Amino acid sequence: MTKADLVEAVHTKVGFSKKESADIVEMVFDTMKETLEHGEKIKISGFGNFEVRDKRARVGRNPQTGEVIEISARRVLTFKPSQVLKSALNGEDDGSGQPTSGD
Amino acid sequence: MTKSGLIQAVTTKMPHLSARDVEIVVNTIFDSMTDALQGGSRIEIRGFGSFSVRHRRARQGRNPKTGESIAVPPKRVPFFTVGHELKQRVDDGRLQYPIVKTKDSDDADESEV
Fold it and tell me: Are A36 and B90 an interchain contact pair (Cβ–Cβ within 8 Å)?
């Protein structure tokens, strides 16, 4: 699945024109990227959380040569899937009383 | 930012749309993505990242409280890989923007997620 498939889904299920659907889908991801860039986490209930974390600099090692290298401080993005999504992938009830999507 | 915050932000940027319309679109996006992962498909959003399904073998686990040995069945787990553009942008943001701490009220709904 690519962004084009999401645009198609929005077009057929919601009824916006393809152009309009593409613009909105693009704006949704742009807004998410901007929010994460600004150091803010995003919580999508039923799907998961996108979290931004600062990592301290540390000393690493090149596994091939054994050479010691400095790994600089950096900021990373992590995704923590929601219980609802994890359950949906395993054909389980998530215990929330809500139907899992794709019903 | 929660899903409703995302809906609000998109509506502000596209004032010709109603919040209700944007909400339906956002829900359609995440529902479609959930369906794709459920069907075992990989999702690739250029500039954002990709989602794939990883398989975990069955293993012998242990109840940490009782020490009792239990069989953990094989599972499928969603896995996200951040895209190059977003990875770079998030890292670049480090020097400019401090990490936004969420309020307690915001974390209260974490368990429902």
Answer: yes
